[in-house]
Amino acid sequence: MPARKKPKHSISKAGHGFDRLLSQLRGLIQESRRQLLRAVDVMQVRTCWEVGRHIVEFEQEGAQRAEYGTGLLQLLAAKLTAEFGRGYDASNLYKMRQFHAAFPNLDAVRPELSWTH
């Protein structure tokens, strides 16, 4: 079995070069995480808007105004929470419906806003 070659530079001798590499990798990882969180947030806003749109369209069945008090949100909340976990209770579904009603054109929603706004 051939002998392993020793690296030309040991970490202890790398000094400044190692610190620079570590700093660059930190920056890369931090920026990637920021971009990932932003992409997730954009998809969360879009999903909430779409959920609201589907609820409104189902409630209205083509009518101008929906009939309220049918228990739709409670039924949806029970089913969606059982399947997807927290975040789909009746109050959140109501907010999603309001979100769609307030911004019927999703493209009008400012991209830098997050669902927490």
Entry summary:
By secondary structure, the chain is an all-alpha fold. It is 64% helix and 0% strand. The chain starts with 10 loop residues before the first helix and ends in a 15-residue tail after the last helix.
Task: Tell me about this structure.
There is one protein chain. The chain is mainly alpha-helical and 117 residues long. It has one domain. It has 4 helices and no strands. The chain has helices at 11-14, 16-60, 72-84, 90-102. Helix 3 packs across helix 4. The chain is elongated and about 75 Å long. It starts with 10 loop residues before the first helix and ends in a 15-residue tail after the last helix.
The H-and-E topology, N to C, reads as: HHHH
State the helicity in percent bands: 55-70%
What are the segments in which pLDDT stays under 50 over at least 5 consecutive residues? none
Number of helices: 4
Main sheet properties: none
What is the count of β-strands?
0
Structural class: mainly alpha
Specify the overall morphology: elongated
| Beta strand % | under 5%
Distance N terminus to C terminus?
A: 63 Å
C-alpha-based Rg, rounded: 25 Å
| Mean pLDDT across every amino acid position | 83
Tally of distinct domains = 1
